[in-house]
Structures are given as C-alpha cells and as structure tokens.
Amino acid sequence: MPRLPTPLTLPAGHARGDGQHDHGQDRDRADHAAGAGEPEPGRRRRSPLRRGETATAWAFITPAVLIILGLSVIPVAWSVLLSFQASDLVTPSRWVALDNYRALSQDPNFSQAVRNTLLYTVLYVPLSIGIGLALALVLNRRIRLVGLYRTLIFVPFVVSATAQGVLFSFILDPEFGAANSVLNTLGISPQGFLTDPGQALLVLVAISLWSGTGFCVVVCLAALQDVQPSLIEAARLDGAGRWQLLRHVTLPAMTPVSVFLLVWQTINALQVFDLVYVTTKGGPLGSTTVIVYFIWEQAFKNFTAGYGAAAAYVLAVALGLVTVGLRLVRGREQRRSARPVRLEGAGK
User: Does pLDDT of 141 surpass 80?
Assistant: First the structure.
C-alpha cells in the first residue's frame, strides 16, 4: 500500500480560505491607509469626478446667481439704505435716519395717493374676480362657438397697458373721442372721462376691468373644469338646485384658486402705474395719483430718491402684510375643512 503524503500544517492566520484571506489583506490595507491619512482607492477615483461635476454645476448656475444678485439682492439692499438718506442720485447723499418716513406721514400728497390706491384696489379686485367667475360659469357650458368667446375675452389681457392707455385716450377724448359721439347720439351730454376729477379714477378701473377680467375668466374656468363630477352628481341626486350647487359644492372646491386670484389681483392693483402714466399722469388735480406713480414722481421727477425709496418700502410692507394675512386666512380655512365632520346623532 502506498504511503500517504504528510499533511502540511498552516499558520492560524492562513487557515482561512483564499477569499477570506484576500478580504483580510484588503481591510489591513484600508486600515493602514486610514491611519496614514490617505483616502481609499475607490474614493480616490471618485473625487476628481465629483470635483468636475461640482465645477460644471457652478458654471451653469453662476450666470443666474449673478443676475439675481445684480438685479434683486443688491438693488434691494441699496434702496433700503437709500430710504434713510437724502439723495438726488447726483450729489453725495446725506444720512437722515427716519426723517423720510416722518415726512411721508405728514405729506398730504402721499395720503391722497394712498387713498386713491385703496379705492382703486377695493373697486377693481372684487369686480374683476366676480365678473370673471360669472363669465367662467357661462363659458363652462356646452354652447356654440364657446372657444371663440373664450379667446375674445382673453385677448385684452395680452394687450400691454401702454397700448390700452393710448387706445382709450383716443376713445375717451372729451372733444374728438368716439365715446362722446355715441353718447351724443343717445342724447346724453358729453362727459369729461379722464379729464374729470370725479370720473378719472372710475374710468381707470373700467379700463383695468376690460383687460384684467380675462385672466380671472381663464383661471376660474380651469378651476370649474377641475371640480369632481361625482360631487356635483351626488348633490343633484340629493335634490340640490343650481344655486345650492354653486354655493355648497363649486365655490368651496374653488377656494384655493379664489385665494390665489385675490392675492394676485390685489398685488397688481396696488402696483398699478403704466396705465396711469400713459393716460392721466396722476391728474386731474391728483385724482389718479397712485402710490407707484407717487414713488416715480418723487424719485425721477423731483429728484428726491431717498424720499421715493421710503415710499416704496411703505408699499412693500403693505404688500407683505396683505400676502401674509391672506395666507393665514387660507391656512385657517384649510384646517377647518380638514376637521372630521360630526354627523347629527352620531353620538347617540
């Protein structure tokens, strides 16, 4: 019988398999590299790629960052400092602290501009939303040429305010305008329109409604088409009429859109300027001077830039308060609607 070979005795460290031995050596090398402060080989291969991706990302976003800094952040910070100075943008400015804001509180022209702006906002915002909702309810039906009607209502919105002002300045001219010609045909005496202090602001509201209502119509129409048909069908099966459907189903479903329109239209109304500049330039007798026109007049016509900047930040604070207030109201309504409805007799 042949003699068997003598088995070899391996050290304890080599008693494991080849794969385990390799992993142990890898761990030893990794520990040695970590102790020496050197990165792992895999990490060393990924770091140049990461640096390249970071550099590429910064290359893409740097132009946008520079534009935001140059057109938003830096001008805002500079105008804040300017509101505490007496400056005409030509000679060296002088620090006056809160004197510009104190002067605003005592300026009758600024008070008149605030009143005109508030009156314009109070008239324009609810009328634009209400008329827009009414037209959207009509255009939400299946009627003939409904697409044409929707387009015709939205077209005035895309016309610039400057073009609107020029157009209506010709139409509403007291002597040669088409409006007074039509009124004369109907036996009505000629009106002053934009030249009458008692009518000018109301005429501006009417022009704004002609152009701004189309936006409300489109938004409300989209919201109406987003109302779930199952809710309407269930309400009809329960015997709800048209008014009850509108009050208890449609309008509650449109609450987020209504809040958005309220905020959007309010901000636009408080910032109206171009229509006033083209048509009346704040006249007659300051009856159409709004806050933004007052700011422009002080900063670029009277060359009191610090005073105009102070008025601008009064408007900015007012816009911020309006936005925050409406968001709080919307949040409260959402929490109220999220509460579980307690049915009558459920606890019995």
Answer: yes
Q: How confident is the model at residue 55, as a pLDDT?
A: 86
Q: How many CB atoms lie within 10 A of CB 339?
A: 7
- Per-residue pLDDT, averaged over 136-165, amounts to 89
CA-to-CA distance for 314 and 147, rounded, in angstroms?
43
Q: What is the pTM of this model?
A: 0.76
Which tokens sit at 83?
Answer: 């509101």
Cα distance between residue 40 and residue 298, in whole Å:
65
d(CA 316, CA 26): 63
What burial class does residue 201 get, using C-beta atoms within 10 Å of its C-beta: 0-12 exposed, 13-18 middle, 19+ buried? Answer: buried
Structure tokens at 154: 């939205």
Which has the closest alpha carbon to 96: 67, 88, 227? 88
Find out whether 90 and 303 touch, Cβ atoms under 8 Å. yes
DSSP 302: S
- Distance between CA atoms of residues 119 and 289, nearest Å: 11
Which of 85, 80, 77 minimizes the C-alpha distance to 103? 85
SS3 346: coil
Peptide bond into 340 cis (omega under 30): no
Q: Tell me how far CA of residue 21 lies from CA of 13, 35, 40, in angstroms.
A: 8, 21, 19
Cβ proximity of 289 and 113 under 8 Å:
yes
**Distance from C-alpha of 142 to C-alpha of 5, rounded to nearest angstrom:** 99
Cα 104 from Cα 110, distance rounded (Å): 6
